Design the sequence.
């Protein structure tokens, strides 16, 4: 779905960003517009019926004729009321449906777009802020699309109709009313601009507090472990108080706008009524004409007042739409090629060739995470990456998965540059077991099946058995259907890691990336999982990151990194014999 570039910040025309989401529902919008016009027409007919009642029903020559005339006129008034009720209900349902539908589409589009962003996007955008935009901002948009905008159009039609009838029946009076109206509209627009600025600021402050809450709740064990509950509660309270103060300023400005519009409209109504009673006393208009005029003035004044309220809602929604469009306008620097190369996945494992790679993280442009990095991985080979923290080992994995693109050099997978492969094709060939195992709020079965959604239950159980996870899963109260809790809180660290290993084994990719895959296991579990991993690595290529050198001694080749560069490479025995960086690391770990 195309997303046009947003206009200047804070402008009501920012709502034009919603047009791509409204276009699929043109028929529903047309139907809502028809009901809106019919309801407005029924409202505008009411003063005519009232004038007919006053001038016709009350002016009958005798009491019997008067009662008959009154009955007919009241039936006519009731018919107008029925039409108004039916058309208003139809308008309300249609517009509310549109609001719910468009908001759901918008929320889904923003979420799907955010999921396609590279990790660099999340270096500068907090998750809590994204969640705030998905909830608070879309709710504001729903209010406008499903209510305020419809009310604004209805009152605009009624106000224009009432104004037209007043000009037709009392041109002299309404000429003066229009001049006075300028004294209402211009100050209201000035107030509106201030409300718009404060609305945007208020939404930003709410997003700040949401970001703090999301960050702390995701790290609650650390917060409690450092007895930081009080500090974090105070930090959230400060952010909430900032949001409250900004909200109060916005509310104060909007309250002044509402008060001004109501007082000004009341002055208009009283002035028109005063002039009308003078005309009745002078005999230039009838009492029914005066009643009709008063009702039209009430409709007109009420429409102006509602439009002032709606304008405030539009301003808040404009700020929300801007924030949502900012997310939709974000473009990931890593995108699939327009014409990807089609390449079949190899049977015996993938080959990887990394040539003269240089990469700087966007958040650290002055420091090279990888510098002149070269690596060859043959089909079916196991290569271990070792070195101190920050040496660039995990960055190699991120380059292979194309979470980032390098500033220099290239990576070839099975002879094809990864930039020429569709992202889905590239990542479907790679299985990864991260150091911090990710467990979703779902059952054990669904967590393992995440690696291959179409897998059967038997295949899931087979993968779990190979990862030595079957026994502890079946011991859970619900077995494979047991809910594992948010982020797997019901499992131990080793159990979570084995679930992640089973997930990668179920995917069965030609290239396997193991990032400290056994770091959370005890000695017994590590031996079992190492045996399972050795089984899983057969027939595929594997890159292993390990700080514990005992886990990589059997690798075909060990590559030692330091400050983003390869400083040594060879087998375990060869590297020990060189007495270099690897030998020093081994001496520290093995005490030799």
Sequence:
């Amino acid at each position: 779905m195309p997303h046009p570039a947003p206009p200047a910040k804070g402008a009501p025309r920012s709502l034009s960003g919603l047009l791509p989401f409204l276009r699929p529902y043109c028929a529903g919008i047309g139907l809502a517009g028809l009901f809106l016009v019919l309801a407005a027409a029924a409202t505008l007919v009411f003063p005519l019926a009232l004038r007919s009642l006053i001038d016709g029903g009350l002016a009958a020559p005798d009491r019997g004729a008067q009662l008959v005339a009154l009955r007919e006129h009241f039936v006519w008034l009731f018919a107008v009321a029925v039409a108004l009720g039916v058309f208003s209900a139809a308008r309300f349902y249609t517009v509310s449906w549109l609001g719910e539908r468009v908001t759901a589409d918008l929320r889904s589009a923003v979420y799907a777009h955010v999921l396609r962003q590279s990790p660099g996007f999340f270096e500068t955008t907090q998750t809590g802020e994204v969640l705030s935009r998905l909830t608070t901002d879309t709710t504001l948009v729903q209010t406008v699309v499903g209510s305020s905008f419809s009310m604004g159009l209805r009152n605009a039609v009624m106000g224009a109709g009432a104004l037209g009838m007043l000009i037709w029946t009392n041109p002299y009076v309404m000429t003066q009313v229009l001049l006075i109206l300028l004294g209402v509209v211009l100050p209201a627009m000035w107030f509106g601009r201030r409300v718009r600025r404060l609305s945007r600021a208020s939404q930003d402050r709410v997003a700040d507090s949401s970001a703090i809450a999301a960050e702390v709740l995701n790290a609650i064990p650390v917060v409690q472990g450092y007895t930081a509950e009080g500090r974090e509660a105070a930090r959230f309270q400060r952010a909430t108080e900032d949001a409250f103060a900004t909200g109060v300023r916005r509310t104060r400005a909007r309250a002044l706008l509402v008060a001004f519009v109501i007082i000004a409209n009341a002055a208009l109504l009283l002035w028109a009524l005063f002039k009308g009673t003078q005309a009745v006393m002078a005999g230039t208009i009838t009492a029914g004409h005066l009643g009709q005029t008063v009702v039209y003035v009430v409709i007109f004044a009420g429409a102006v007042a509602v439009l002032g309220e709606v304008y405030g809602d539009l301003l808040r929604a404009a700020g929300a739409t801007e924030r949502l469009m900012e997310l939709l306008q974000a473009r990931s620097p890593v995108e699939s090629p327009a014409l990807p190369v089609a390449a079949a996945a190899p049977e015996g494992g993938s080959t990887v060739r990394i040539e003269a790679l240089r990469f700087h993280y966007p958040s650290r442009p002055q420091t090279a995470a990888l510098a002149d990095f070269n690596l060859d991985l043959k089909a079916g080979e196991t290569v271990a990456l070792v070195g101190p923290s920050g040496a660039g080992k995990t960055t190699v994995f991120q380059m292979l998965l194309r979470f980032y693109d390098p500033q220099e050099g290239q990576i070839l997978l099975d002879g094809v540059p990864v930039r020429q492969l569709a992202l889905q094709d590239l990542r479907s060939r790679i299985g990864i077991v991260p150091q911090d195992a990710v467990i979703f709020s779902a059952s054990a079965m669904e967590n393992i099946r995440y690696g291959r959604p179409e897998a059967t239950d038997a295949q899931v159980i087979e993968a779990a058995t190979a990862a030595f996870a079957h026994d502890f899963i079946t011991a859970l109260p619900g077995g494979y259907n047991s809910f594992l809790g948010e982020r797997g809180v019901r499992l131990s660290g080793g159990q979570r890691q084995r679930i992640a290993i089973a997930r990668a084994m179920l995917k069965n990719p030609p290239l396997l990336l193991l990032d400290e895959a056994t770091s959370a296991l005890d000695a017994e579990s590590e031996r079992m999982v190492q045996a399972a991993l050795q089984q899983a690595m057969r027939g595929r290529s594997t890159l292993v990151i390990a700080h514990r050198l005992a886990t990589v001694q059997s690798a075909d080749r060990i590559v030692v990194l330091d400050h983003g560069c390869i400083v040594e490479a060879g087998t375990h025995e060869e590297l020990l014999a060189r007495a270099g960086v690897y030998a020093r690391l081994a001496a520290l770990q093995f005490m030799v």
